[in-house]
Amino acid sequence: MIPIHEALQQVLKQRSTYGTEKISLLEAKGRFLAEDIFTDRDAPPFDRVMMDGIAIQHKDLDEPPAASYKVQGIQAAGSPQLSLQEETYCLEIMTGAILPHQADTIIPYEEVEIKEGRAYIQAAKLAKRFIHYKGSDSKKGELILSKGKKITAADIGLLATVGKSTVSVAKLPKVAIISTGDELVEVDQEPQAHQIRKSNAYTLWAGLMEEGITGKLYHINDDKEALRQSLAALLEEFDVLLLSGGVSKGKFDHIPEILHELGVKKIFHRVAQRPGKPFWFGAHQSLNTKVFAYPGNPVSTYVNHFYYFQQWLYASLGKDMALSRVELAQSIPSNPALALFVSVRLDPKSGAAKALNHNGSGDLFSLAQTEGFVLLPARGTDYMPGEKVDFLALK
Amino acid sequence: MIPIHEALQQVLKQRSTYGTEKISLLEAKGRFLAEDIFTDRDAPPFDRVMMDGIAIQHKDLDEPPAASYKVQGIQAAGSPQLSLQEETYCLEIMTGAILPHQADTIIPYEEVEIKEGRAYIQAAKLAKRFIHYKGSDSKKGELILSKGKKITAADIGLLATVGKSTVSVAKLPKVAIISTGDELVEVDQEPQAHQIRKSNAYTLWAGLMEEGITGKLYHINDDKEALRQSLAALLEEFDVLLLSGGVSKGKFDHIPEILHELGVKKIFHRVAQRPGKPFWFGAHQSLNTKVFAYPGNPVSTYVNHFYYFQQWLYASLGKDMALSRVELAQSIPSNPALALFVSVRLDPKSGAAKALNHNGSGDLFSLAQTEGFVLLPARGTDYMPGEKVDFLALK
Questions:
Q1: Based on the structure, what is the number of domains in chain A?
Q2: B110: nearest CA in chain A?
Q3: Of A46, A191, A296, the CB nearest to B96
Q4: Are residues A158 and A268 in the same domain?
Q5: What is the torsional sign of CA A73, A79, A82, A88?
Q6: Are A177 and A163 part of one and the same domain?
């Protein structure tokens, strides 16, 4: 049994890369950038008008402007740049338009009256307001998004702005989700008294979908030969195997032994945590297949997957995942030997975490009530209200 | 101009429903439940063995057990329930198995030695450990997930457990994303000096995708007749129009006027907030089409969409969205007249929010650096370190 921080370190050490691919911008949300992104123009790309009104040439800002200007025409957004033909002329200008040649001052409609082709200025004082100058946000060639970043909706807008209709992203690993256990039946089956329906496989499937990965579902019965043959084939075909069930010490829990025979090196088995202690993690050295074997309990599978696999995935494809932090709303008993994942709800006003279940075990249905899990590392003294701890939000 | 809380209230008042549909469990993550979900069996559905070992009939827990028991056979997980044939017999049992008839006590392998068909007990003290009793988590017919809940990966597992291979969810609205502005060109085009590429439309598209909605993209030029014809058709075809640009006061910003002519009732225009002040919101009374018209600035569009539309969507399909709360890491100047959306990063240790940009405006590229926005309601006194405020995490 190893401590949780060591288990995580071992898992992260097994980070791997799966190449890159070019995909359409419309598919890129949630993927990890495989290229640095630079601006291809100054931003804004021209002296951009920020208000609707008129543009004049004013030059000396201390002197009051002429009382009125002849309206020469309109500089609309999206129209090529016009020029003021005379110092006593103005152009009506629209938000988003390029500032006309010769013009240096915008007067918004609120401070102008336009009558019979002339604009009468009603502003007491002028200044170079309402012009968003070329390059004032960023210069051409600036780095705006770095390789490894997980692409947000806002980033999609940035990528569009710099003309990336396709973008290079990290390829996703191929993942098999393997349920084991003869007591399991399909979701649409009516279980007999001693049977239960599969559930972990679907939770894992949905968790992978969230990351853009379409997992492939398999079920293998508790038969040594069937397990050996299936696992041998799956180790060849996939980059990652997610197993649920079959890692405790029973007669029919052959999986660690078979994985060993098939060349998967055990990196650790059993972590000093609750729930999820019997977690088994290994890797096939020549095939480079990673094996996350979760204990069969749904809450155990859940926390192990969203803690270990999720961090492994982020580290593999891009940057390390930043766990969010929350404040504890109450004291929670610690465990001197085990790290605890404690099911919590967040107070709507303070955002602080209240435990639903102190002892860090918890059944399947408690997952329906929880908003996530706080991670309380092993220690001798209880956790106190106001302490900041890691938080795994329910996905 | 109305205050932000009133704007939100008006938006939420326009919540609407779009019917329900049955979909596969595999597609249900992130959708909103349109039915209450009950357990169809006790959980666990039988007295479930929690350890590998042997099962005996012990009856009186104060008395030490027989020194050894004849091994009658194996009760595997997924096998129908066996019976202990004699009081001096035991059954080997596996995690997940049903507790055999007559048996009442589990002794794990760690406390047993099995030799020549007999099990020798090495435990000093026994108890009814390691049995997860039928119905101890929940009884058949219990409500586990309520109508209106947004389905998480954990919920997918719960739905599987109770046999929901298909699930009834709220239908999603049909959404059109309409960019306007003659200065905009497509992402894959090389803009001329006075042009910029479309970006807001793609940010909105990605934001909708996150909610399972495939938005349809349109662009309409700044031509009154083209706008009128296109908007008339789109109001008929869609449940929601998201417009970006075209709601300030310029000569070519015809949209509010045209929407009015087409029967869309303006609910408000301009909100006391920064950025995003010129937000326009309306609804067509007979067609029931909602119109969110965002100002063209990318940060304005972003905060308005993820604040107003997102909350409207959750309220329409399920339950009101709970904004998360964060603590401020520093003081931030308030504005007595305007609510501010301030771009922040979260401290990795404390989780507290540090402002990237105090004044609540911000350019497109600042979106690349931000982790989200804190919402600081209008008030006369500055915000202080330690205050808890609403937080919009970047999606």
A1: 4
A2: A249
A3: A296
A4: no
A5: positive
A6: no
Q: What is the mean pLDDT of chain B?
A: 92
Give me the helices (H) in chain B, please: 4-13, 153-161, 200-210, 224-237, 255-261, 298-304, 310-317
Parent domain of A332: 324-393
User: What residues in chain A have per-residue pLDDT under 50?
Assistant: none
Of B81, B94, B204, the CB nearest to A251: B94
User: Is A156 found in the same domain as A59?
Assistant: no
Would the ipTM clear 0.85, i.e. be above it?
yes
> What is the DSSP code (8-state) at residue A41?
S
Give the model's pLDDT for residue B361: 54
E strands, B76-165, in order: 89-93, 105-108, 112-115, 118-121, 131-132, 143-145
Task: Name the least confident of A159-163, B61-65, B316-320.
Answer: B61-65
Whether residue B250 is found in the same domain as residue B190: yes
CB A20 within 8 A of CB A169: yes
> Could you tell me the CATH number of the domain that includes residue A381?
2.40.340.10
Rounded distance, CA B198 to CA A158, Å? 10
Residue at a domain's end among A300, A317, A334: A317
Q: Are residues B165 and B180 in the same domain?
A: no
Q: How far is CA B336 from CA A353, B278, B315, in A?
A: 32, 18, 29
B339-346 and B353-355: which strand pairing? Answer: antiparallel
pLDDT in tens, B335-366: 999 999 999 999 999 999 999 875 555 577 77
Write out chain B residues lying below 8 Å of A161, CB-based: 196-197, 199, 298, 364
Tokens in use for B102?
Answer: 């007559």
Q: Looking at residue B26, what is its pLDDT?
A: 96
| Chain B CB contacts of A363 below 8 Å | 43, 137-138
